[in-house]
Model the fold of this input.
Amino acid sequence: MAQWNPWQEMEALRRGIDRAFEQVGVPLPSPFQIAFLPGRAAREYPLVNLADDKDSVYLEALAPGLDPASMNVSVVRNTVTLSGEKPRVTTEVKPEAFHREERAAGKFVRSLELPSEVDADKVKAEYKNGLLLVTLPKAESAKARQIRVQVA
Amino acid sequence: MAEQTVATTSGQPVATGKEGTRAPERYIQPPVDIYETSEGLVLLADLPGVVPSDLEIRLEDHTLTMQGKAKHLLTSEPMYREYELGNFFRQFQLSEQVDQGKIAARFQHGVLTLQLPRAEKPQPRQIAVQVS
Done:
């Protein structure tokens, strides 16, 4: 006849908990690691960050190595479209000469809806160190107005 | 040209090094292209947002280290965010065949281009025997 041993019970419980946590402990791929790579799959490219202040909306796009001549920014009402091309290394390099090929290349188009209407005539774009910064001044009709309350 | 990465079961490369206990920063491994030409190797790395003065390329003991600090162009905190920029770090082990004195680097539009020319092999020399 087996004797009841509380220590053994506790040990079994501890092992059970360990097993349950083992499955949780599988490291998930960090979203940070793959966050900025355009990849070859149909993913949104380029990735953008948006910021705004009282007068303008600012769009920053992560797009290293673009051909500056191919870049195009167009604005209609509250939609901005970015297009361009990231050229391939060189066409003369044979595929077997590559040791590593991780940088994606190709053409892209991306349209974004902005939180407010912008003045298309005053949009400015700047390409610096692989980041594209588009400054989109808000349209007069979209700006917030201060309304004074009349006290009778 | 071997790279110092640890093989993980998930197949996701993990950058080695930079495991300082007091370094709270996170490092991103930049994507690279490496290809061979008749002169040697060419390495291209996407380093968006890195200011050229914050880019550090070091070579010691056949180890090539690329390290850069990326900065946003946006001055205020974004209201909509799809990516973050951090520090870039990647190391490569160079073989003996690279002429370490002739490595040239160029940084344009967020892309680093490194030219790694092959070292010239010592030419075989015919030694004439003098017969007196």
